Predict the 3D structure of the following.
Amino acid sequence: MSSDVRFTDFKSDKQPTWCPGCGDFGTMNGMMKALAETGNDPDNTFIVAGIGCSGKIGTYMRSYALHGVHGRALPVGTGVKLANPDLEVMVAGGDGDGYSIGAGHFVHAVRRNVDMTYVVMDNRIYGLTKGQASPTSRSDFETSTTPEGPQQPPVNPLALALASGATFIAQSFSTDAQRHAEIVQEAIEHDGFGFVNVFSPCVTFNDVDTYDYFRDNLVDVAEEGHDPTDYDAAKDKILDASKEYQGVIWQSEKSIPYGEKHGLDTNTSEIDDGAPEGAMDLVREFY
Amino acid sequence: MPADFNWAIGGEAGDGIDSTGKIFAQALSRAGRHVFTSKDFASRIRGGYTAYKVRTAVDPVQSVVDRLDVLIALTPRTIEENLDELHEGSVIIYDGERTTMENVEIPEGMIGLDVPLKRLAEEAGGAIMRNVVALGAACEVSDFPIENLDSALEKRFGSKGQSLVDNNKEAARAGRDYVAAEYDHEFEYELETTDADYVLLNGDEAIGMGAIAAGCKFYAGYPITPATDVMEYLTGRIERFGGHVVQAEDELSAINIALGAARAGARSMTATSGPGIDLMAETFGLVATSETPLVIVDVMRSGPSTGMPTKQEQGDLNMMLYGGHGEIPRFVLGPTTISECFWKTVEAFNLAEKYQTPVYIAADLAMAVTEQTFPPEAFDMDEVEIDRGKVVDEESIEEWQNEKGQFKPHALTEDGVSPRAFPGTDGGVHMSTGLEHDELGRRTEDTEMRVEQVDKRTRKVETAREEEDLSPREFGDEDSENLVISWGSNEGAMTEAIRFLEEEGIDVRFLSVPYLFPRPDLTEAVEAAENVVVVECNATGQFADVVEHDTLSRVDRVNKYDGVRFKADELAGEIKAALQEADQ
Ligand SMILES: Cc1ncc(C[n+]2csc(CCOP(=O)(O)OP(=O)(O)O)c2C)c(N)n1
Ligand code: SF4
């Protein structure tokens, strides 16, 4: 790890094909800044991406990376981190990827509390498949597959995380560049699973959850003097549907990451040339 | 008496059938006898008929037969279920004081031993030991010195205190003494002991042990019969060798966690059965496209859907050969014996890393849950070789970078295999994706690159055909005009069936095929034979289809799909019939 890493070192030379104005640009820049700020470099960083416009992020960033299948990025990140704890692991994807097809994995990744960071680029729509309802779409939001709106309440990802035993829950807004980067940085620094839901507007298919909407409705919890280690206060904020919050909303002081609990502290990529020392004992157990 | 002795204990699930059977099997193995076990079990925890069968001989035994010499029947149904296999002179041990067993009628010609199992157990310290009393009775019947039971009892109960061990030893002796005192019958059985040193294990355990031997450091799985034993074996053991087991939330997660660990550079594995293989299919393609080495074990059971979860079948071959959308280079290894479960697992890791592909291990229930004895040398750890393939480090990385210093994880090479840089390697930064990609791993729809990458991945299979020894295992008379081909666990029954056939004057050449893809070319063998029979545990003859496809010849089929493995004598009969039909 070199100390003179700049955030642009995390940029690949591939030009993003996101629509001009897409929130994902800001989300990505903040992630790169946060990685550089926390002393990481591309050689020790592993980014796992889901599928969707958001999932393309792994292509535009420079690090070790895997762009996997729809909804399964969290398990991949889990395997990477547990097999090599020296790596900084960041998982990114969309709201459809994370809260619909991958919802089961989300709950269990939260419970497992592996020391990695999960950034969800929440545009409240399916972008890449051209504008169908996502789990965070409003119940009356008309889309090509829900002409009258989904008619179901949206998932509250923060509440889902809290109910699953999350140790770090934050929310940010991609255009509020400085704050967003700070919040992701805190998630990286958290010992355990750092979850950040990022409002990352889709300028092409979502004309409701727009930049203007978030700008008008966003409240920064830090400005309200919120104490993220106060569980009840965090719960109130998370369940308050009247506002959109930004900041670190919940952080447990008791978080023990999975790897630490299980004594996983070594890179397992190195193995012996033959069977490991003492392997014959395994045979004798069957005597 | 015949050279082999067949014994069983049967009752309701929850009666402790499994552990009692295992104790007896272990005692026999420790007494230097070969053992082969099989289990009949239903998919429920309490209630439902279940049995544990042991076949034993001084010479190796590799299958079950249609004969039962001694049966411990804890329920009347046990006798009914095994009626076909019992014969004149068979001994049935039962507890006539048990209400359900009061009116049991012992079939003509058989010997019923009414032993008050529960009462004797209570006298020895607890009713729970009644199965052990029965074991003692069985020792007397088979003239098997009861001391041999002691070490098996110690192994089973030692951790729970010496007094429990002693009580069990006493219970066993009570059973033996009761039979000796109450019945003056001379039984025809006599189980000789030898000084041979054997270990007793099942296929799932052999796979787990093979994984550790191969340096596997990571396992992620989701419980499913009959693959769970692999995970249970590894849990608590792999840690001693620096590894870790994760119980995932489902199979989709399991294979993705395993994939992540593999990408981080660890030797990594998952195991499941048919329904789980279905769920893993999407990621299977990702594993191949991202060129990640991964070992995936399919312990087949009866399908489709949830089918018969505790029953034997080899119905997933097509899924393993062709499953997944698009075209996916892969290996499918099919161990044919329990010891081969170990060696094929070791090989699977080498092939996975050497060729950077997913490798299926096609195991089946019959092999996975039953135990067999082997000399410990059958698992000689000094013989384990590790090949990690083209791993690059900081020094060698430049060779694989483009002019801009970017690493090429999917470099187009002659043998189809690209270099591999573990994350953390300076200068090796790269991404991989399930999308079609260029040499750098970046998405492309360029027609030329698409074709080049597909060809590159496919070339691995061609390279393997040239470099690896994919030969079948050969048995019987190599000049015979009758050729029998099988895969998976049928080898054991078939090698014994050869002897039954010989007795009837029928010679066969038998090829047991452990490489299902890529696989050996059987054309020459098929063309040299007059009659060809492919034996497998499925209804449609999935491997027979493959043989016909590969050799452009028609073959005969012996299929079994009732949920029960082939028995050696039964298989001999079916092959004889198939050959006779072919001759007509
Ligand atoms: C198994 C599977 N089902 C469906 C798809 C098609 N698909 C691709 S992206 C996507 C939705 C992505 O939505 P979201 O996660 O919200 O990301 P966004 O594009 O909005 O950033 C879907 C359904 C797929 N790739 N794989
Ligand atoms: S469709 Fe929406 S989410 Fe996708 S790139 Fe365009 S603006 Fe961004």
